[in-house]
Design brief:
Residues 20-190 form the Alanine racemase N-terminal domain. By secondary structure, the chain is α/β, with parallel strands linked by helices. It is built from twelve helices and 17 strands. 31% of the residues lie in helices and 23% in strands. Strands 1, 10, 11, 12, 13, 14, 15, 16 and 17 form a nine-stranded mixed beta sheet that branches. The two termini are 38 Å apart.
Length: 393
């Protein structure tokens, strides 16, 4: 029984604390590699935020390189020699980090920054002055736009068409001090949107329709865009996908690598997918501190709300013991989280409840360390980014 195993492993710890079940983590890593079908997976560090676990993923077959979420993070990971292939997934306006990049030859060879406009190049030039080749990746928008004025997908790059991609690529290659080495095209309307949201059958139908229509369109447009960009630049990589869309992205002949991170931990947002089911690997434990009534137990702390839309699916969820749920009028709070259900009848003061976060790496912004559990024991305890005094926003 998983609850018993985790309780035994952590019996000497006082909640709140966080764990990663290494058996589940390794299982999820193997399943992601299977789904990638031979494409290398770039590890999305935003979804992990534990240096030890980023390295653990990279040690496995099928994983290569890191997708960082800030330039400062990429520079730090380079200093720590975690990887020599670091792609920053979002454009940067961090002048200090750009200056540090420009001054470090090793970092310039390892780190690739994201751009989607000439303004990004102008910003870099203004921040650091004359410089040697800075590696850059062009981001292509692959949101679905079925009708004029209709945008389905994340609001990211303004570069949407093959013609726009070729034009920007040409200008980058002509620009002194920059080297275009890659293209990234992230289909958030598929990779980050579950097609089987629990208890929402009509929403599920709508999402599946959107994904069925947008999938073929994005593969065709991305392939055309990469063909156009390759006419003016020698690309080292074309990155696409996310945990939720590995199969679709891998079917695109223009893509050379995939990206994934959340699937290693299996947060609750990924319960809404039909085609795969990661095992919950990242959990946190809370203590019962009150029993307001027979069927309610109040836990200490727990209000670890995920980013994104302010909807119930961004709240943490009780996991073990089974049969618990939060209260609709109170939810998960800063200092207390009431849970109710038949299982609450058996809970006593001091018992622990295991919780799951809605997203992946955001959980570890709440803890300085994470306990890595194997079987019924803690294999070791390692620092999170926060525990290493690193905060990248």
């Amino acid at each position: 029984m998983r609850r018993t195993r985790l309780d035994v492993a952590t019996k000497d710890l006082d909640p709140p604390f966080a764990i990663v079940d290494l058996d589940a983590f390794d299982h999820n890593a193997a399943d992601l590699a299977r789904r990638a079908a031979g494409h290398p997976i770039r590890v999305a560090s935003k979804s992990i935020r534990v240096r030890d676990l980023v390295s653990r993923a990279l040690e496995r077959p099928g994983y290569s390189g890191i997708m960082c979420y800030s330039l400062a993070e990429a520079l730090w990971l380079s200093e720590q020699n975690v990887s020599d292939d670091l792609l920053v997934a979002y454009p940067t306006a961090d002048r200090a980090a750009l200056q540090k990049l420009a001054a470090n030859e090793t970092a310039r060879q390892r780190v690739t920054i994201m751009v989607d406009s000439i303004e990004h190049l102008d910003f870099v030039d203004a921040a650091i002055g004359p410089h040697s080749d800075i590696r850059v990746c062009l981001e292509l928008d692959v949101s679905w736009r079925p009708l004029p004025g209709v945008h389905i997908g994340p609001r990211r790059s303004p570069i949407h068409t093959p013609q726009q991609a070729r034009a920007l690529a040409a200008r980058i290659t002509q620009r002194r001090g920059f080297k275009l080495v890659g293209v990234m095209a992230y289909e958030g309307q598929i990779a980050g949107l579950g097609d089987n949201p629990p208890g929402q059958p009509l929403r599920a139908i709508g999402i599946r329709l959107i994904q069925a229509k947008s999938g073929p369109e994005l593969v065709a447009r991305r392939t055309a865009a990469i063909t156009a960009v390759r006419q003016v630049a020698d690309l080292e990589f074309v990155n696409g996908g996310g945990t939720g869309s590995l199969e679709l992205t891998g079917s695109d002949p223009s893509v050379t690598e995939l990206a994934a991170g959340s699937g290693l931990f299996g947060p609750t947002l990924f319960d809404a997918y039909q085609s795969f089911k990661p095992v919950p690997a990242a959990l946190f434990a809370l203590s019962v501190v009150r029993k307001p009534n027979k069927r309610t137990a109040t836990l200490f702390a727990g209000g670890y709300i995920a980013s994104g839309t302010p909807t119930p699916d961004r709240q943490p969820s009780p996991y073990l013991p089974e049969g618990l749920k939060t209260l609709g009028l109170e939810g998960a709070g800063e200092v207390q989280t009431p849970v109710t259900g038949k299982a609450a009848e058996q809970l006593k003061i001091g018992d622990r409840v295991w919780m799951r976060h809605a997203k992946a790496g955001e959980l570890f912004e709440r803890f300085d360390e994470v306990h890595l559990v194997r079987g019924d024991r803690i294999e070791r305890t390692v620092p999170t980014y926060r525990g290493e005094r690193r905060n990248f926003g």
